[in-house]
Write a structure and sequence with these properties.
about 70% helix, 18 helices, mainly alpha, globular
Length: about 500
C-alpha cells in the first residue's frame, strides 16, 4: 500500500511538472508567432496566470511524500529515512520470458565463441602465411568499420547510463528515447562472423578459394538491422536517425534541432570508420570478396574521390547548419561557429593536398599549421561554448561555471584529456605512412579512430550536461528542463530530514 501511494504521488508530481513546462512552451511559441516584441504585457500576464495554477505547486506534493516516507521509516526501517526512501523507490520487476530467452541466447553465443576460439588455436594454419595474412587483411576494413559502430553504440549506452545517474534529462533535450540495448546483440554477431572468417582462412588447405563469406554475412546483417522497414528492432528510433541524417545532408535547407546538429557533430568524428566503409563497399561491389583480394584506396578513382570527399563532407554539413541556425535565431554566435568549421575544412583540404604530394615540405608545413590552428580554435569552442566552462574565477569552481552537475575533478580531467586526444593526429605526420594511412597502417588507424570516438563521447557527456544547465545557443524556447525523477526532500538526492 505504501509503495502504491508513493508511486502515484510521484507520478502526480511528474505530470504537474510536464504540464507546466508544456504550457510554458505553448506561451513562448504563441508570443513568438503573434507578437513582434519579445517582451510584452500579454506574455507576462499569461505566465503569471500559469504560475498561479495549483498543478504548478511542487512543494505541497513533496511535503506529502516526505511525510509518507517518514511514516514508513518509523514503522519498517527503525527511523532510517534514507533506507525507507530507497525501499519505496525500488522498482521490483519480475524477470519476463523474453529476458530468459535473451539470457539463454547470449549464453549460447558466448559458448559457441569460446569453442570456436579453442578450435582456432588448435587447428594449424596454412603454410602459405603471406597468403593467409593477405586474405585476413582483405576483411579488416569491413570489421574495423563494424567494430567502430558497435563501439560507438556501447559508448552511447555508457553515456546514457552516466547521464541518468547524474540526473541529466537527455530524453527531454533530444526529444527522443534512444535505444541502446541491441549493442550486445550486434557485438556478438560481428565477433562471431570475424572469428568464423579467421577460422575458415586457417582451413585454406581444404578450400579451393578464399571466400570472404562471413565478412559478407556481417555487413549484410548490420545493413538489414538498420534499414529493415518492419515493426521490430526499434523502427521508430531508426527512422528518427535517418531523418536527422537527411536533415543534415540537405543543410542549410533542412531543420536544425539539437539532435540534428548533435548527430552531425558526431559524424565529424567518424571520418576514419566512414573511409573503412568505402573500402568495404569497393571490396564487395568489385567482386574481390570472392577471392579475398584486398582493396586499397588507389585501386579505384571513385574510391580516391570518396576518401577525400568524406573527410570534408561532415564538416561542410555542420558549416551549413550554422548558417541555418543564424537564419532562425539571428545570433552572431552561429556565424562564429561557422568560422570554426571553415577553418577545419581548410585544414582538411591542406591534408588532401599533402596526401597527393607527400614529398612536399611546404605542403606538410601548411597542413600542420592549419590543422593546429583549427584544433586549437575547436578546443577553445568546446570549453567555452559547448561545455560552458571558463566562466568562473572563484577558487571552488576555477575555470568552470556556477551551475554544475558533475564533480569538479571530472571537468578538469576532461579539459586536459580532450586537448591530448585532439592532437593524436600528429602520430600520422610521417612522409612514408601518412598518405596511405587507411590502407597500410591499419592498426594505427583503428587505434586513432577509437581515441577520436572516445573523445567525442566525452564531449557528448559535457555538451548534454551543459544543455541541461544552460541554453547558450537557444535550441529550446524555455530554459527549464524537467528532472528525470522528482526526489523527496530528506534523501541523499534531496537532502535530509
Amino acid at each position: 500500500m505504501y509503495i502504491q501511494i508513493y508511486t502515484k504521488l510521484r507520478w502526480l508530481n511528474a505530470y504537474g511538472q510536464i504540464n507546466f513546462i508544456s504550457a510554458q512552451r505553448c506561451i513562448s511559441k504563441f508570443s513568438k508567432t503573434f507578437f513582434m516584441e519579445s517582451d510584452n504585457v500579454i506574455d507576462k500576464k499569461l505566465m503569471q496566470q500559469l504560475e498561479s495554477q495549483i498543478f504548478t505547486d511542487k512543494k505541497s506534493i513533496q511535503n506529502v511524500l516526505h511525510d509518507l516516507v517518514q511514516q514508513f521509516a518509523v514503522r519498517f526501517t527503525k527511523g532510517n529515512f534514507k533506507k525507507a526512501h530507497d525501499m519505496l523507490s525500488a522498482n521490483v520487476v519480475n524477470t519476463q520470458t523474453k529476458d530468459h530467452l535473451l539470457i539463454s541466447f547470449f549464453t549460447g553465443v558466448l559458448f559457441i565463441l569460446a569453442a570456436e576460439l579453442i578450435l582456432e588455436v588448435s587447428v594449424p594454419a596454412s603454410n602459405e602465411k603471406s597468403i593467409m595474412w593477405t586474405t585476413m587483411r582483405s576483411s579488416f576494413p569491413t570489421f574495423f568499420f563494424l567494430i567502430m559502430i558497435i563501439f560507438a553504440i556501447l559508448l552511447v549506452g555508457f553515456v546514457i547510463k552516466f547521464l541518468k545517474a547524474s540526473k541529466v534529462n537527455y530524453q527531454y533535450i533530444f526529444e527522443l528515447d534512444p535505444q541502446y540495448k541491441e549493442a550486445l546483440t550486434l557485438g556478438c554477431f560481428v565477433l562471431a562472423c570475424f572469428l568464423s572468417q579467421i577460422y575458415s582462412i586457417k582451413l585454406v588447405h581444404l578450400l579451393d578459394r578464399y571466400y570472404a563469406f562471413f565478412t559478407f554475412t556481417a555487413i549484410a546483417g548490420i545493413l538489414v538491422f538498420f534499414i529493415n522497414p518492419f515493426h521490430f528492432l526499434h523502427r521508430g528510433a531508426r527512422k528518427q536517425l535517418f531523418i536527422s541524417l537527411f536533415q543534415g545532408w540537405i543543410a542549410p535547407i533542412g531543420r536544425v534541432k539539437f539532435r540534428d546538429f548533435f548527430l552531425a557533430d558526431l559524424m565529424t568524428s567518424f571520418i576514419g570508420p566512414l573511409r573503412d566503409m568505402g573500402l568495404s563497399l569497393a571490396f564487395f561491389i568489385s567482386g574481390r570478396w570472392v577471392h579475398s583480394d584486398p582493396v586499397k584506396r588507389d585501386d579505384f578513382k571513385v574510391l580516391q574521390i570518396y576518401f577525400f570527399a568524406i573527410g570534408i563532407f561532415p564538416l561542410w554539413v555542420r558549416f551549413m547548419q550554422c548558417f541555418r541556425r543564424y537564419y532562425d535565431t539571428r545570433l552572431a554566435v552561429n556565424l562564429k561557429n561557422a568560422f570554426k568549421y571553415f577553418l577545419s575544412i581548410i585544414a582538411g583540404i591542406a591534408g588532401i593536398l599533402y596526401t597527393l604530394d607527400n614529398t612536399s615540405k611546404s605542403k606538410l608545413a601548411a597542413f600542420v599549421t592549419l590543422q593546429t590552428i583549427a584544433q586549437l580554435v575547436s578546443y577553445s569552442w568546446d570549453l567555452y561554448m559547448d561545455w560552458g566552462l571558463l566562466r568562473s574565477w572563484k577558487s571552488k569552481s576555477f575555470l568552470l561555471r556556477k551551475k554544475k552537475m558533475f564533480p569538479a575533478w571530472f571537468y578538469y580531467c576532461a579539459i586536459t584529456t580532450n586537448l591530448i586526444m585532439r592532437f593524436m593526429w600528429v602520430l600520422n605526420i610521417n612522409s612514408k605512412t601518412f598518405p596511405k594511412f587507411m590502407t597500410e597502417n591499419l592498426l594505427n588507424g583503428l587505434l586513432l579512430s577509437f581515441i577520436e570516438i572516445l573523445r567525442r563521447a566525452q564531449w557528448a557527456v559535457l555538451r548534454i550536461e551543459n544543455e541541461n544547465c544552460n541554453n547558450f545557443e537557444r535550441y529550446r524556447n524555455i530554459l527549464q528542463i524537467p528532472e528525470p525523477e522528482d526526489d523527496v526532500p530528506g534523501t541523499k538526492q534531496g537532502g535530509g530530514p
